[in-house]
Amino acid sequence: MKVVITSEPGVGKTTLVKKLVQHLGDKAVGFWTEEVRDKKSKKRTGFKVVSTEGNSELFASKFFRSKKLVGSYGVNVERFEKVALPVLEKALKSKRSVAVIDEVGKMELFSKRFRGLVEALVHQPDRDLILTIPLRDVHPLVAEIRRLPDTVLIELDRENREFMDKEILELIRG
Prior knowledge:
Strand order of the largest sheet: 5-6-4-3-2-7-8-1-9
Largest sheet: 9 strands, mixed
CATH class: Alpha Beta
Mean pLDDT: 96
Low-confidence stretches: none
CATH architecture: 3-Layer(aba) Sandwich
CATH superfamily: P-loop containing nucleotide triphosphate hydrolases
Strand content: 25-35%
Number of domains: 1
Number of strands: 9
Distance between the termini: 8 Å
Number of helices: 5
Structural class: alpha/beta
Radius of gyration: 15 Å
């Protein structure tokens, strides 16, 4: 079962993914992204990628100098790939795992290798997959994912976010 979750920023996609990973335990193979905030001002300064294997890396920051920008954030593709690609390659080889990808967004899509692995995973038959995408089609791959057959598309909102983990687990467990 392929489950695609979308929402406006800040509604709780990553929180939901982390709950699902916790419920799935070792079956979950993939990554999520987390905001990084300044300890004093509490303002967001960047994003880190965290794998289900416990590896993490700051990959986007207001302090990075990069030609790859999303708003005021410089994106370091190599740092992202160092954490995300090994777990996605592992998920691709293991049909019994649930591939977890949070998220297929502008920053992550700078990586051509990431795009290739996402395409392979979403088109793999009988693949259990939990994936988040932005509400807007920021890239042709996001539009393609949104329209995949045999996929459940869930729009997360403040009303359904508290119980959606149970719904998704039922879908995945079949």
